[in-house]
Backbone:
């Protein structure tokens, strides 16, 4: 059934049922519209989907390019420096419709999402059916000022913060992207990663498409432009049917704002409303809070939401979705603690993770400390459950820039010392439990342990508020290759010896799933199990300019179409299969 919702009112009565739409593709599709409700209704009447694009599996990148190998352009430096050894969320998105200060609200919302990307930011605003854009490299506060926001009038805007890229290709990859085609202009901001990007790009280039960036998001614009479907909404549907992987996207045209989420719901996307009726979409609810928008609900996996002045908010089912596979790392690390993600409080999740660690991996200790900032809430949960005081044993500097000058006489662990300072009065002579959210390569953890020892700690017990990470993410998170992940190469005891602590325990995987209860099957655990809901078809590198941010050293000549080549007859699924065996899940 179809329904419209006025921007300033509750859902209206259902209107007549839409006919089935025939897209210019082999799929047979019919769509259903449904009112905004708290249920999970995205079930079309019928839909048969077969992939049109097939590509051979590619080798995991680290198998192809040994860590010490240099290319003709010299060494490519890993973004996973020893001083910042965490997975990185690729980006955050915002969309606003119906507010006279849309671009300024978008700017503030991007501030709230700054933790999701610090390398670039952009806003596209619509004024008199014209799309105007400002993008730049750096933090939101560095890209925008009063004069730039004055260039973005209008009641509709989308915005994007980006992590990733380096070198000359950086600025052109900053989103939102805007493109013109014969029926007008469209802007898009994308959070996620397409696992069939290379195949789609090759198909489009064979048919004459010209690409300006190395971003997988540009593929979506080309697919919209070549679609024969009508109206514009069905062009988006037609394009998204060809995509595989993770995407939470917001689109803007001269008169419409559109939000789309992939059928698995890998990346978060929420909907809210301001008191004046303006509709807001954002990656996290913390963005809604800052601009005083009330959270209404998530954009459902496989759903397309369309907002315009004529019909208000319309909801359409993109395609039948399997069971959702939402990213568990949003609750472990990426999202802010004050956000609701996938309908759950991030703060409460992390607090319970700490309680589970205290119950299942207890140890005699005098004080509990956190690796700030992401380990704080889990440490509070651990301390409360263990009945041991929580104190600030490590102080984080929030004023360290992205570049700094090291003295000529080398200082050991210089990067970590710039960011974290131990408090000797808290640590000296104490048995210390240190709670962190995850261990990726182990390099930062070993330096933190050394800092705490130098401050006089008697014992150091590491407690990690996630299971061991054994697999790389292909759905929008920048992680090292599996070969670089320490838990994929070492046992827990070997890791303990490597980082130099007295004991080490991870959050048990079974306990994590038990804590999630009936929601457990709805989460993606590929980084812990090696079981991928959507099988990666291609090696994960976004482009020459992005290679620095993928933990790789590779000859630039090895890159074809901005993706690394795999050897002939290589089967990625067989390569990933040993992870299944190792995880025993």
Residues:
């Amino acid at each position: 059934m179809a329904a419209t919702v006025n921007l300033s009112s509750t859902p209206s009565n259902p209107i007549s049922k839409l006919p089935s739409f025939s897209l210019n593709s082999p799929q047979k599709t019919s769509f259903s519209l449904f009112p905004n409700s708290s249920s999970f209704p995205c079930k079309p009447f019928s839909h048969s989907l077969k992939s049109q694009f097939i590509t051979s599996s590619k080798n995991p990148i680290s198998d192809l390019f040994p860590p010490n190998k240099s290319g003709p352009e010299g060494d490519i430096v890993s973004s996973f420096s020893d001083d910042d050894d965490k997975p990185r969320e690729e980006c955050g998105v915002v969309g606003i419709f119906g507010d006279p200060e849309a671009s300024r609200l978008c700017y503030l919302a991007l501030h709230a999402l700054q933790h999701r990307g610090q390398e670039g930011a952009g806003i596209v605003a619509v004024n008199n059916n014209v799309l105007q854009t400002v993008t730049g490299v750096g933090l939101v506060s560095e890209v925008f000022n009063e004069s730039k926001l004055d260039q973005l009038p209008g009641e509709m805007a989308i915005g994007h913060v980006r992590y990733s890229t380096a070198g000359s290709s950086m600025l052109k990859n900053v989103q939102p992207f805007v493109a013109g085609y014969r029926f007008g202009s469209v802007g898009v901001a994308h959070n996620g990663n397409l696992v069939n990007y290379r195949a789609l790009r090759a198909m489009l280039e064979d048919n004459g498409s010209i690409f300006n960036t190395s971003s997988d998001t540009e593929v979506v614009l080309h697919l919209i432009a070549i679609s024969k479907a009508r109206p514009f909404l069905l062009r988006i549907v037609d394009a998204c049917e060809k995509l595989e992987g993770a995407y939470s996207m917001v689109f803007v045209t001269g008169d419409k704002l559109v939000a789309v989420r992939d059928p698995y719901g890998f990346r978060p996307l929420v909907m809210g409303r301001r008191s004046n009726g303006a509709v807001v979409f954002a990656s996290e609810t913390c963005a809604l809070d800052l601009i005083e928008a009330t959270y209404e609900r998530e954009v459902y996996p496989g759903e397309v939401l369309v907002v315009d002045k004529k019909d208000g908010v319309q909801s359409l089912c993109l395609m039948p979705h399997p069971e959702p596979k939402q990213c568990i790392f949003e609750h472990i690390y990426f999202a802010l603690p004050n956000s609701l993600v996938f309908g759950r409080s991030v703060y409460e999740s992390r607090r319970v993770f700490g309680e589970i660690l205290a119950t299942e991996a207890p140890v005699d200790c005098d004080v509990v400390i956190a690796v700030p900032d992401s380990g704080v809430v889990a440490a509070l949960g651990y301390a409360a459950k263990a009945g041991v005081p929580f104190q600030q044993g490590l102080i984080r500097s929030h004023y360290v820039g992205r570049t700094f000058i090291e003295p000529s006489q080398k200082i050991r662990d210089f990067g970590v010392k710039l960011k974290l300072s131990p408090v000797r009065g808290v640590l000296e002579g104490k048995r210390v439990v240190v709670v962190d959210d995850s261990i990726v390569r182990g390099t930062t953890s070993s330096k933190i342990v050394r800092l705490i020892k130098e401050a006089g700690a008697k014992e150091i017990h590491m407690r990690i508020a996630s299971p061991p990470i054994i697999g790389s993410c292909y759905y929008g998170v920048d992680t090292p290759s599996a070969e670089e992940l320490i838990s994929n190469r070492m046992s827990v005891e070997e890791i303990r010896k490597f980082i130099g602590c007295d004991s080490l325990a991870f959050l048990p995987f079974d306990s994590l799933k038990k804590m999630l209860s009936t929601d457990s099957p709805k989460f993606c655990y590929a980084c812990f199990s090696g079981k991928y809901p959507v099988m990666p078809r291609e090696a994960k590198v976004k482009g020459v300019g992005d290679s620095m941010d993928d933990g790789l050293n590779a000859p630039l000549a090895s890159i074809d179409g901005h993706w690394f080549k795999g050897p002939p007859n290589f089967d990625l699924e067989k390569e990933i299969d040993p992870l299944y065996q190792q995880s025993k899940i």
Notes: DSSP finds 19 helices and 29 strands in the chain. Residues 1-40, 43-83, 165-169, 541-585 have pLDDT under 50 and may be disordered. The two ends are 41 Å apart (CA to CA). The longest helix spans residues 346-360.
